[in-house]
Amino acid sequence: MARALIGLGVSACLMASFKAFGQWFGTERQASLNAAIMAAGGLGALTASTPLAWAIPQYRLARAFSLALAVAGLLVAVGDLQHAGEAGWRQTANRCGSQVARPGPGI
């Protein structure tokens, strides 16, 4: 039952990414973008299960998820720092904001 509920929730995210890829990128990039999102999801499912299974008995459920969130946030921050060094913080923020403000035709 839990896997079915997870699948139902993740399906909306997957279809949203496919829709965004279809609107923001050309047809020549669709296959590689769809493959990348599927690979990221599969890799996340594989890598999260063992560390989480270890952390829950050690730290309880809420603290284990808080720890996982902190690690994910740290990884995102480090990635943003590396990218911001290339483009600058303001340019990166403007680009992200414009993607949200103008997601593409047909939405």
Structural overview:
The protein is mainly α and 107 residues long. The protein contains four helices and no strands. It has helices at residues 2-24, 30-59, 61-87, 89-101. Helix 3 packs across helix 4. The longest helix is centred in the middle third of the chain and has 30 residues, at 30-59. The chain is extended and about 45 Å long.
Which features would summarize this protein structure in a list?
extended; 107 residues; mainly alpha
Summed up:
With about 110 residues, this protein is mostly helical. It is about 85% helix and about 0% strand. α2 packs across α3 (about 60-85) and α3 (about 60-85) packs across α4.
Present the secondary structure layout:
Layout: H1 2-24, H2 30-59, H3 61-87, H4 89-101
Helix pairs in contact: 1-2, 2-3, 3-4
Report Rg.
17 Å
Helix run count: 4
Average per-residue pLDDT, rounded, comes to 77
Q: Quick one: how many beta strands?
A: 0
User: In one word, what is the shape?
Assistant: extended
Structural class: mainly alpha
Strand content: under 5%
- Give the topology string: H per helix, E per strand: HHHH
Task: Give the N-terminus to C-terminus distance in angstroms.
Answer: 33 Å
